[in-house]
Write a structure and sequence with these properties.
Strand order of the largest sheet of chain A: 9-11-10-13-14-15
Number of helices of chain B: 3
Strand content of chain A: 15-25%
Helix content of chain A: 40-55%
Low-confidence stretches of chain A: none
Radius of gyration of chain B: 17 Å
Strand content of chain B: 15-25%
Number of strands of chain B: 4
Largest interface: A-B, 23 and 15 residues
Oligomer: heterodimer
Radius of gyration of chain A: 21 Å
Shape of chain A: globular
Structural class of chain A: alpha/beta
Strand order of the largest sheet of chain B: 1-4
Order of helices and strands of chain B: HEHEEHE
Low-confidence stretches of chain B: none
Number of strands of chain A: 15
Mean pLDDT of chain B: 90
Distance between the termini of chain B: 25 Å
Shape of chain B: elongated
Chain lengths: 392, 97
């Protein structure tokens, strides 16, 4: 039976990967992802996990190795962060259209300059369009569960796409939380063995990743995009099955006290936990404020999001990414385009907060809601605002 | 021609754009890129096969008499054969002639 233990979230993620019985882990350590791959290398060294741990010379090599091992039919896992994820970037575009179900946990961290090891979402927003399925964890239990879920979804033959589980660096990766760790037998009931649709095999030779001449490139991209969009059904189905087996339900878009809300905060990742506390405080003060957390970032769950916000007239979207020179933060822009010319659409205000590890406190959420309320009365919806920035 | 074979809709494109049929590169006739073509002077040729060995596209074939000839459906006109020929038997000439 599952037991609840006090455990560092990174170790819990490594446990999930061990329970998934991966075959290959090519990895390069980068803060704050380090503990995940360190523990995996220990598992392999101690004989607790029968896998190849490949200590590569860079993240570029890590992802290249992942592509090779996944194409060979091996269950493949890696983990990265920030500058390392950027160094992987060139290879990150390959496994999506090639339909290689690699699973990666990204411990989100700011990008230089200035050098920052602390948490925000700028690293993953750079990789928004790599064509992987992407989910965001709010707490340690989410990180553990979503990692197992990622293997199940990515390797489903109807999906066969790479998948990223985003966990906030330090805020999640380095904290100790009570987490329910499933047993090997329980995981076995949820996660079947990996049976790829195609794999590199000398007896049945195929080529994976050939040149796409102009006559096929567009069609190959469309086929990948359609597969990514269609994966949502399998993602949701796997979450339902997870809930039936283990009692924890996950959804593409989660809500907290959002029914009848006038102003809705929109968040992703671990700040959602603080946001819930802030919503409680504002509700206690008689304000009709709710929260919507986006768990599934790619493919974007548009219909589910529209349903989740109900009749709220104002959305205060919090991005943990400052897009220099842009009109709006990435999540804010996604939502503005989702609601473009939709009758009765809410007013969407985009805020940037919590960059490079700066805390987003309950008071900050209150400030954001206050600003959104004021702007809704007298200001056109445009641009974005950085919260908590010192002017002098 | 392989490029024409590949003109299909996204639904019928092979999964992951994989190439499922081994050895089909023989159908890529690449000779239309050529701007120079090799010709062998059989008076000078000693049938050593250096052109055949060095041709990066394996365009050379041996004739029943033992000479080597480039197949113009695959020859890209790179001139490596002419460069490597120990007897200077191969000359490259512009394709338009």
């Amino acid at each position: 039976m599952a037991k609840r233990v006090g455990i560092e979230v990174s170790i819990a993620v490594a446990e999930a990967v061990r329970l998934a019985d991966v075959d290959v882990v090519p990895a390069y350590p980068i803060t704050p992802q380090t503990h995940i791959v360190e523990h995996l290398s220990e598992f392999v060294a101690n004989g607790e996990l029968d896998a190849e741990f490949i200590p590569v010379e860079s993240e570029h090599a890590a992802m290249s190795c992942c592509c090779g091992s996944s194409a060979a039919g091996a269950r493949t896992f890696t983990s990265s962060s920030s500058q390392g994820l950027s160094l992987m970037s060139e290879i990150l575009y390959h496994p999506g259209p090639m339909r290689l179900p690699i699973v990666m946990v990204v411990a989100n961290r700011a990008l230089a300059a200035p050098i920052s090891i602390w948490n925000d979402h700028q690293d993953i927003m750079v990789q928004r369009d790599i064509g992987w399925i992407q989910t965001f964890a709010e707490n340690g239990q989410d990180a553990f569960d979503l990692t197992l879920h990622a293997f199940r979804v990515a390797e489903d033959r109807r999906v066969s796409l790479p998948m990223i589980v985003n966990i906030d660096g330090f805020t999640l990766s380095h904290v100790i939380e009570p987490i329910e760790i499933l047993s090997k037998e329980e995981v076995g009931r949820f996660l079947p063995p990996f049976k790829p649709r195609f794999r590199l095999d000398t007896k049945k030779p195929i080529s994976i990743g050939p040149v796409g001449v102009p006559e096929v490139y567009t069609e190959a991209k469309v086929a990948h995009n359609e597969a990514l969009k269609a994966s949502k059904r399998v993602i949701v189905q796997a979450w339902k099955e997870f809930a039936n087996l283990f009692g924890r339900q996950y959804n593409p878009v989660e809500t907290y006290r959002s029914e009848d809300a006038e102003v809705i905060l929109v968040t992703m990742g671990s700040i959602s936990e603080t946001a819930m506390t802030a919503v409680d405080a504002m509700r206690d003060a008689g304000q009709k404020v709710g929260l919507v957390r986006i768990r599934l970032w790619r493919p974007f769950p548009g219909p589910e999001f529209k349903k989740a916000i109900g009749k709220a007239g104002v959305l205060a979207v919090i991005d943990r990414c400052l897009p220099p020179g842009a009109v709006c933060g990435p999540v804010g822009a996604e939502l503005r385009s989702l609601f473009y010319k939709v009758p009765g659409a809410p007013k969407i205000f985009s805020f940037v907060a919590g960059l490079g590890g700066r805390d987003v406190t309950v008071d900050r959420f209150k400030e954001i809601v206050e600003k959104a309320r004021t702007y809704a009365k007298r200001r056109p919806v445009e641009n974005y605002e950085v919260i908590g920035v010192r002017e002098q | 021609m392989a490029i024409l074979d590949a003109i299909v809709g996204w639904k019928t494109l092979p999964f992951g754009c994989h190439v499922l049929e081994p050895g089909n590169s023989a159908r890529f006739r690449t000779g239309d890129w050529r701007s120079q073509r090799p010709s062998t002077d059989r008076e000078k040729c000693i049938k050593c096969g250096m052109c055949w060995i060095f041709c990066p596209d394996m365009a050379y074939r041996q004739t029943p008499e033992g000479y080597f000839e480039a197949d113009m459906e695959y020859c890209k006109g790179c001139g490596i054969c002419a460069n490597e020929c120990p007897k200077d038997a191969i000359t490259m000439s512009p394709e338009e002639e």
